[in-house]
Design goal:
Elements (H helix, E strand, L loop, with lengths): L15 H6 L2 E5 L4 E4 L4 E3 L4 E2 L5 E2 L14
Antiparallel strand pairs: 1-2, 2-3, 3-4, 4-5
Length: 70
């Protein structure tokens, strides 16, 4: 689906590193999602919907790992 060089990995192997290789085709920040060139839809909460219908849940940091600014 994508035509940029070097080509991104398929959406079937979707993880954080793959996501950064695909280019945004259509961004909708007011709605909280973007369409990538590999056909995946990524959401602001770090979740995704893959072209084959698979759902990738959000990757949230456990609360105890968050730092609080003083």
């Amino acid at each position: 689906m994508c035509s940029h060089q070097s080509s991104c990995p398929s959406a079937g192997r979707f993880d954080r590193s793959d996501r950064s290789d695909a280019h945004i085709v259509s961004a909708h920040p007011e709605q909280g999602w973007s369409l990538l060139c590999d056909g995946a839809i990524v959401f602001d909460d770090t979740g995704a919907l893959l072209p084959d219908g698979q759902v990738v849940g959000p990757h949230r940091v456990p609360a105890e790992q968050l730092t609080i600014a003083a």
